[in-house]
């Protein structure tokens, strides 16, 4: 199965992309809702939680792992690659390559949680590939709770998005990385507030395109992925609200199971 | 020592009240920042986390426990009283008694996290004492992240508070319970938006007044509480930002230590 790991339910936006781009494969999802959000936590804890989540997915039959969480990708990926031998994909590198290909004026913006932005990983990795690019980063801690409230179109959300994006707009970036799983829900507002000329790039879309490519080139791994639509969804803490949000976001009824990890 | 348990750093508003009302006693604080917020979690998990935190405080020398967290008070207090033999105080009952004494028109409002409001505990306990009182509850999930951002006076905060309070205002409540540790930072905005005629009641203040009273009546317990200002602060995940917020809120320099529980 195709395992998707996230710190919470934000990774369901990556599930949506898998439904679109790789619709044949059975998905095994684990969201660590008992310990979400990872965004404000320290590095050691994030690495430990991520290893526990991935272990669970492997025990359930995952043959490939997608880390949907930007915080985990930014902070713990190297560590996890050393710990586990199966193919693991993360959301940071593919979107960086896409952003570098996309920018014309060499000014890239990054928006994400405080932990993702503070890690400086986007800046560091972009500079390694293309030192002449300027990166402008902005932590937007209120956007995750706004999305989880379902306030996708409210005036307050528009004002807060505008306030967060104003510094990036002044820098005249032409490419903006949405470095948090939740942000695709605010894509329209973000596009309006940052300006029509700016290209938005979505890590979820890029990682799934990368996995598609990998499976084409590695048929010996592809054949171990079960097909069908009996997807399995697990979380470490299940509430009625999580089921509601999940079904609303995915636009279909799903069964979610609570597990202790 | 006087132990204060919270799911995160919000309980520091209760510490502030202890500094004001019981300034002689040494405080032992534990905030479960690695697993905060408890607000959206299920009951079983909240009970387990709270028992672990209180156990830690007892092992560190606490002789009395104040549960600063409304979610834990609302969901887990009865369970914790059975598990532990030392005096445990919680923030729900004292504020309920105060609100019942305060209201003239018998219309009380309650604002809090989704979990606190969904638990229905305020409504249930008020009705048990005074069945003729009407209670109007409103979950305000965005206020905690707004406070943690330090957006105490921003226009967006005022608009969001206004939106949340509008239904309570229409009901013409005359008393409003601030059923979340973070809300005292928004006290002025809340007062303005709900109307000058409405009395706000703060669980932190009420619980500390209750403890003061208890210590006066129980000198055999009071004498075990160490005095002095070498307060100890522990969290389960320490970041630079937590130290910054804590010192900003308390208005003094403090040492915070990270512990695994």
Would you kindly provide a brief summary of this structure?
Two copies of one chain form a homodimer. In chain A, 49% of the residues lie in helices and 16% in strands.
Give a written overview of the molecule.
The structure is a homodimer of 261-residue chains. With 261 residues, chain A is of the alpha/beta class. The first copy, chain A, has 2 domains: 2-90 and 204-258, Rossmann fold (3-Layer(aba) Sandwich); 92-203, Rossmann fold (3-Layer(aba) Sandwich), CATH 3.40.50.1860. Helices cover 49% and strands 16% of the residues of chain A. Chain A has helices at residues 12-21, 43-59, 70-83, 92-102, 114-119, 121-129, 143-148, 155-170, 187-194, 203-217, 219-222, 240-250; strands spanning 2-6, 27-31, 64-67, 88-89, 107-112, 134-139, 175-178, 199-201, 232-235, 256-258. In chain A, the strands form 2 sheets. The first copy, chain A, has a 6-stranded parallel beta sheet with strand order 4-3-1-2-9-10, sandwiched between helices. A 4-stranded parallel beta sheet of chain A has the order 6-5-7-8, sandwiched between helices. In chain A, helix 2 (43-59) crosses helix 3 (70-83) and helix 8 packs across helix 9. The longest helix of chain A has 17 residues, at 43-59. At the A-B interface, helix 7 and helix 8 of A face helix 7 and helix 8 of B.
The assigned CATH architecture of the largest domain in chain A is 3-Layer(aba) Sandwich
Share of residues in strands of chain A? 15-25%
Biggest chain pair contact, residues each? A-B, 27 and 27 residues
Radius of gyration of chain A: 18 Å
Oligomeric status: homodimer
Number of helices of chain A: 12
Give the class of chain A from helix and strand content and strand pairing: alpha/beta
Low-pLDDT runs of 5+ residues of chain A are none
- When the domains of chain A are counted, the total is 2
What kind of sheet is the major sheet of chain A? 6 strands, parallel
Mean pLDDT rating of chain A:
94
How do the strands line up in the largest sheet of chain A? 4-3-1-2-9-10
- Using the coordinates shown, work out and report the CATH topology of the largest domain in chain A: Rossmann fold
Order of helices and strands of chain A: EHEHEHEHEHHEHHEHEHHEHE
β-strand number of chain A: 10
Shape of chain A: globular
Query: What is the helix fraction of residues of chain A, given as a range?
Result: 40-55%
């Amino acid at each position: 199965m195709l395992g998707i790991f996230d710190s919470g339910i934000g990774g369901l936006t990556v599930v949506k992309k898998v439904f679109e781009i790789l619709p044949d494969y059975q998905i095994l999802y684990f969201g660590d809702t008992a310990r979400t959000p990872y965004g404000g936590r320290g590095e050691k804890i994030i690495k430990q939680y991520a290893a526990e989540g991935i272990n669970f997915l492997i025990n359930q039959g995952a043959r490939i792992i997608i880390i949907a969480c930007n915080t985990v990708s930014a902070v713990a990926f190297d560590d996890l690659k050393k710990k586990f031998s199966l193919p693991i994909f993360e959301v940071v590198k593919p979107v960086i390559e896409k952003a570098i290909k996309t920018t014309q004026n060499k000014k890239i913006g990054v928006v994400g949680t405080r932990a993702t932005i503070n890690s400086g990983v986007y800046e560091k990795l972009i500079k390694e590939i293309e030192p002449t690019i300027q990166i402008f980063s902005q932590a937007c801690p209120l956007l995750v709770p706004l999305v989880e409230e379902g306030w996708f179109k409210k005036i307050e959300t528009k004002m807060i998005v505008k306030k967060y994006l104003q510094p990036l707009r002044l820098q005249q970036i032409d490419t903006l990385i949405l470095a948090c799983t939740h942000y695709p829900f605010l894509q329209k507002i973000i596009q309006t507030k940052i300006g029509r000329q700016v290209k938005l790039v979505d890590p979820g879309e890029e990682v799934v395109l990368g996995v598609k490519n990998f499976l084409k080139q590695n048929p010996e791994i592809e054949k171990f992925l079960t097909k069908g639509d009996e997807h399995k969804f697990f979380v470490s803490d299940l509430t009625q609200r999580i089921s509601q949000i999940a079904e609303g976001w995915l636009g279909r009824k799903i069964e979610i199971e609570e597990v202790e990890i």
